[in-house]
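Structure ticket #2291
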Amino acid sequence: MFLTPFVDAIENEPAPRASFLFRLVNLLAVVVPFIGLVAAIVLLWGVGFGWVHMWMLVAGYFLTGLGVTVGYHRLFTHKSFRTNRVMTAVLGVLGSMAVEGPILAWVATHRQHHQHSDRDDDPHSPHGHGEGLRGFFHGLLHAHFGWLFLGRKSDPARYAPDLQADPLVRGISRLFVLWVVLGLAVPAGIAWVVTGAWTGAVLGLLWGGLVRVFLVHHVTWSINSVCHLWGSRPYRTHDHSRNNPIFGLLGFGEGWHNNHHAFPASARHGLAWWQFDLSYLVIRSLALLRLARDVRLPRSEHIASKRAA
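Resolution: structure written out below.
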């Protein structure tokens, strides 16, 4: 029987918190690639990177990133708001262009994560992978991207039967490869038109396509790993989810992860006024334009009842 992702789990810690060394290496593994990317942009400016490529990278990051956060996550997985069929299709296609898997597979994995967060059946927890160096690196790599290579798939029939029953969502999910190809071809085509050279198209594909995919992936994976290791825990949950302001910004609000695990159905993850949540601002803007409705938010008394002592 399908267990709704909106039901709170038992509130007890499943395992001791990871050691400081484990968390430090995790942090370095996440930060160093970002530093490398910035260095590459600086060194290649005017040679293999310029304003056209910058806009391809930034626009692609925002559009496909929001496709994941607003579409895949808050709309399809948690149903934290409703929208019309056109916006459903747009968000589904943009999320697919992030190359994180078809909608049905992504939603099934994330719902399984919530139901078993930081326990044995969690698909990508950094916790509980044994002692010593082997367990240390196993947990680190597993949480960030290693779980993708294990071949274990969450069953959409169990975790996402509601979406399987929707012909539009099912169709978008089946055409995943098409959306991936378009997500790579569009920046290449735009760069070719702007520069008028095949080298411009290649660089458009590189920066607006491949590098953009890497960047979105890395931020998404960091929510799985960093936000279960580093940050604050203002609310009681059954797992190690944490609020991390760096990924609150880079992840368009997804980094307020403890807030999210405490109130998974909420369309707003940044619950405090200072917790910037771009994804929620997009949802609110859609609501003002009458393109979103039934936006779900936790009641103030519910928020107060879950605050950590």
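Closing remark: Residues 1-16 have pLDDT under 50 and may be disordered.
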